[in-house]
């Protein structure tokens, strides 16, 4: 499913097969470009293609950290979202259980998003989100629990604008923290 990363040199990918992505980019002008398997995966991941740029949502999925290692629920990680994310509404980072591809069970919350009022920003306007079994000291508002489950991250952009698709803004890889 992940033949090429969305951003060159990163581990973020569009969570649909390449033929479905190509069909979306061509407006499905070729009736064979919208395969049944691709469609099932696409809707399973709650992904859809907006008919008008800047409306709807666009999703990226990461299953590995910056080093190319699978995201492990027993470890701690961070994702720094650069300032001025190219969205008209908001962004969200949601964790899913790697084994089931469903939300991680029995957590207080499954995601953090830019529309959470208590979210702490960095001095440069970026926001760092933490993933792990425990919240880093003083940063519980920027933390998503893993409950020790191996996980994947779906980064959602609601109302993405042109600079996102032009890749003028880049989402960096998730980084493992020293333990």
Task: Describe the structure concisely for a colleague.
The chain is 12% helix and 26% strand. The protein has 179 residues and is of the alpha+beta class.
Overall structural class, as computed from helix and strand content, comes to: alpha+beta
CA-based shape? globular
CATH topology of one domain: Jelly Rolls
The number of strands is 8
Q: H/E element string?
A: HHEEEEEEEHE
CATH-derived architecture of one domain? Sandwich
Helix content: 10-25%
Our estimate of the beta-strand percent is 25-35%
CATH class term of one domain: Mainly Beta
Corresponding CATH superfamily of one domain: Domain of unknown function DUF1214, C-terminal domain
Gyration radius, rounded: 16 Å
Instruction: Please give the order of strands in the largest beta sheet.
Output: 1-7-3-4
Figure out the total of helices. Answer: 3
- State the separation between the terminal residues, measured CA to CA: 31 Å
Low-confidence stretches: none
Characterize the main sheet.
Answer: 4 strands, antiparallel
Mean pLDDT: 84
Describe what you observe in this structure:
This protein has 179 residues and is of the alpha+beta class. The protein has a domain at 53-176: Domain of unknown function DUF1214, C-terminal domain (Jelly Rolls). It has 3 helices and 8 strands.
């Amino acid at each position: 499913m992940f033949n090429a990363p969305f951003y060159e040199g990163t581990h973020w990918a569009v969570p649909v097969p390449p033929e479905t992505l190509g069909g979306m980019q061509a407006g499905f002008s070729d009736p064979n470009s919208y395969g049944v398997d691709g469609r099932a995966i696409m809707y399973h991941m709650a992904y859809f293609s907006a008919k008008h740029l800047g409306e709807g949502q666009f999703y990226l999925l990461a299953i590995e950290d910056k080093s190319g290692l699978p995201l492990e629920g027993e470890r701690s990680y961070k994702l720094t979202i650069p300032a001025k994310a190219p969205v008209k509404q908001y962004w969200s980072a949601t964790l899913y259980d790697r084994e089931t591809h469903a939300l991680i069970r029995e957590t207080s919350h499954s995601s953090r998003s830019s529309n959470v009022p208590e979210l702490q920003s960095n001095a440069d306007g970026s926001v760092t989100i933490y993933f792990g079994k425990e919240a880093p000291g003083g940063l519980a508002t920027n933390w998503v629990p893993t409950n020790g489950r191996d996980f994947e991250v779906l980064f959602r952009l609601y109302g993405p604008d042109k600079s996102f698709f032009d890749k003028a803004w880049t989402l960096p890889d998730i980084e493992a923290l020293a333990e």
